[in-house]
Amino acid sequence: MNLLLHFHLLVSAALLLSPSLAHDKFDSHVLPRPLSILEYQETPGILLSNELDREVRLLCDGWRFAVEANNLGPWKTVPSECAEYVREYVNGRGYGVDLEVVGKQGLEYAKGLALGGDGKDVWVFDVDETLLSNLPYYADHGYGLEAFNGLEFDKWLEKVKAPAIESSLKLYEELLRLGIKVFLLTGRSERHRSVTEENLRNAGYRNWDKLILRNLEDHGTTATVYKSKKRTEMVEEGYRIVGNSGDQWSDLLGASMSNRSFKLPNPMYYIS
C-alpha cells in the first residue's frame, strides 16, 4: 500500500471517528467526563491536520528506514508525500548526526585493523554523497522529488562546487595516516576525470592511489556489476579490501566485497 493511500485512509478514519467533524455542533456530554479537555475551542481542521502530519511523518520514517536497510525495491523519485520530510532531514541535524555515526564507526574499525605492512591494504570510497555532497544541486531539484536528469547533473559536476562531507574527510585522512591506501570508485564518467579531481582537491582530499571512473565499456551496466568488476580487479592485483564506504547498496554489494562495509544515508536517490 503506497503512502498516498495510507494518507487517504487516515482522513477517512478521522472523519468517521471524530464527533467534531461528523456533526456541525459538538456535544461534549456524549463522551466520558475525563475527556472534557475536548471542550476547548480548537479548530477541527487544525486537529485533523496535526494528526495527519504525524501520520505522514511516521510513514516517511518507515519509508526512509526501508531505503537505508535495502528493503525497498528500485525507486525513481521520493514519494510526493515525503518531499518536505526529506528536505527537512537532509538540511537538519539528523542527517549530519547519521553521517557522523557512520564516520566514527569507520574510524574505530580502521584503528583496530592488523595491517599486512606490504602496502596492499586498501579502502574503497564512492564519491557522490560519500566524499562529496551534491546537496546544492538537489536543493534546486526537489531533493529527489524530480526524476534524475543526467544532463543537468553533468552541468553541476562541471561547476566543481560540491563540498566535502566532513565526517568522510576525517575518516579519509585517518586512513592515510594509518597507512591504508585509498581507492576511489565512482559511477562518474571518465570524461569527468579532471573536474572530479579538481573538486576533490578543492574539498580537501589528497593522496588517493586510484580514481576509477566508468569507461565507455562500463556504460550500460548496473552500478553493482560495474563496481563488483572493479573490486575483483583490485583483488586479482593482490590488494586486500579492508573497508568500503558508499551511500548506495550498489556501492557495497556484489563480488569481491570488503571485509566490512559502511553505508552512508541517502534518501534522495537510488542507483541499482
Automatic annotation (TrEMBL):
Keywords: Glycoprotein, Signal. It holds the Pfam family Acid_phosphat_B. Residues 1-22 form the signal peptide. GO terms for molecular function: acid phosphatase activity. Belongs to the APS1/VSP family. InterPro entries: Acid_phosphat_B-like, Acid_phosphatase_pln, APS1/VSP, HAD-like_sf, HAD_sf. This is Acid phosphatase. CDD domains: HAD_VSP (cd07535). The lineage of its organism: Eukaryota, Viridiplantae, Streptophyta, Embryophyta, Tracheophyta. It comes from the Eukaryota.
